């Protein structure tokens, strides 16, 4: 299995750095990456429409994942609504926590996993994307710690890296959403697809969805 560091690549962050400086944010912790989580919400605007974090039929990955069907996502590392262990943070081992999947509906072909931070809107100006994985076989019931997908595709997170990027809140405790969707199809999209691209491709194909929440503080 390849080391995580060998499969990451760094994208340009000059544009985002300029935005951060212009906004007068001198310390955003790790939240200074490329930023393409798809839920941009500048402080000066009302959080509606294109900038909203409210789920819509047009893009199911935006906002919370509603409980649909019996699909369930849990972790042996933390309970729903409880703190995520520090080892999974950006400043520690920075590896994904183990996850367990159950209740996948009949007819499901693939799973999509989205991990994001809606509390990043205030310091970073957007919902921060930490992990995006699609075309996970629907037969998978366990996602191990420090997982390297072999039959799925990992997108680029808002740190500008492909794969998982751990929590790194700059301003107190944040909520992290682990959102899981069961689809009746596989997604034929580019490997550099954004979260919104994935959501657009998922439209009309979601059979079930669920969400696990973890908390993390600096």
UniProtKB/TrEMBL annotation:
TM regions (residue ranges): none
PROSITE patterns xref list: PROKAR_LIPOPROTEIN
InterPro entries named in the record: PEBP (IPR008914), PEBP-like_sf (IPR036610), YbhB_YbcL/LppC-like (IPR005247)
SUPFAM superfamilies hit by this protein: PEBP-like (SSF49777)
Segments of this protein annotated with the region Disordered: 29-102
UniProt name for this protein: Phospholipid-binding protein, PBP family
Organism: Halobacterium jilantaiense
